[in-house]
């Protein structure tokens, strides 16, 4: 089943594809981070995809509604995406009860056949509610704070056959495995040659506009790697630590020195400034 009608996430990504820039899909774990991300988008006149993990939906049940309110009230294009939804029952609860624009149906911890079958069924159910679907082809190794760790599972590069099978399953956004990992690469970022941009280029050529490409595993990316990924077809750029590490460092350094209100205010400014910097790098500034 093909998604019909307007969808905020896909409109943002389609505009970025036409404009040859990348859009950050930024994780928020709390209201302070959400606020800082939205402020950056407004200041930079940049589109932005707000991402929440399923664990955050359980931990802070009202955060999705706060994010949805921000999406509706913003003067720039925003959307709400649920990242790495890995439980079928929870996915069905999310799409039935929350005002989300897109969901990553992450069945990559299953074998290929079961991954594809579950993805196809859930994609149809999401599309019936006007919700776009992202899926991971192959398997991206590692783990992040908020998603199941796949470190014990072998990383599987996305093959041309994977691409066709996932498109046939009805997805709208493809997250390929091209050497990227969930989690940290180290201070220097990915090792030379670790990210297989030739594979990304081939995937982009193969999909020929049928779906959009999401790049996961951007922790520790230097600007030149991010720009190269955009140049080779990545349009949805999942970011977590890349933006939020400055918040963690600021809070650790200043929690014992500042009153709480000041700590929150200054911490949000730090995230906002880092987000604005990366919007410039990704080319989305001024595109709203």
From TrEMBL:
It catalyses: beta-D-fructose 1,6-bisphosphate = D-glyceraldehyde 3-phosphate + dihydroxyacetone phosphate. Its EC number is 4.1.2.13. Pathway: Carbohydrate degradation; glycolysis; D-glyceraldehyde 3-phosphate and glycerone phosphate from D-glucose: step 4/4. Zn(2+) 2 binds at residues 106, 136. The active site is at 83 (proton donor). GO terms for molecular function: fructose-bisphosphate aldolase activity; zinc ion binding. Zn(2+) 1 binds at residues 84, 182, 216. Pfam families: F_bP_aldolase. Catalyzes the aldol condensation of dihydroxyacetone phosphate (DHAP or glycerone-phosphate) with glyceraldehyde 3-phosphate (G3P) to form fructose 1,6-bisphosphate (FBP) in gluconeogenesis and the reverse reaction in glycolysis. This is Fructose-bisphosphate aldolase. It comes from Bimuria novae-zelandiae CBS 107.79. The lineage of its organism: Eukaryota, Fungi, Dikarya, Ascomycota, Pezizomycotina.
